[in-house]
Amino acid sequence: MTRSTVTLPGELLDELLREVKAKSKTAAVILAIQEEIRFRKKIRIKAMAGKMEFVRTADDLRHGDGRLG
User: Fold this and answer.
1) Is 28 within 8 Å of 13 (Cβ atoms)?
2) How many Å apart are CA 35 and CA 41, to the nearest integer?
3) Residue 54 neighbours by CB distance under 10 Å
4) Rounded Cα–Cα distance for residues 69 and 67 (Å)
5) Are the C-beta atoms of residues 17 and 28 closer than 8 Å to each other?
6) What are 44-67's pLDDT values in tens digits?
């Protein structure tokens, strides 16, 4: 884990602590960062909708593993 010093507005940090009900400031900031990353990944995945072509059937994906031979 990396230690960092960050200056944050007190009101913003207080609001974050209330919203996420974290036990510490560190836990609250970690959770906020994780949620932001998750949110941005979800946006990128949604942007791919309709841009991918699947060549295998859903049944084949569920039951067949082409790597096994």
Assistant:
1) yes
2) 10
3) 8
4) 6
5) yes
6) 999 988 887 878 888 887 887 666
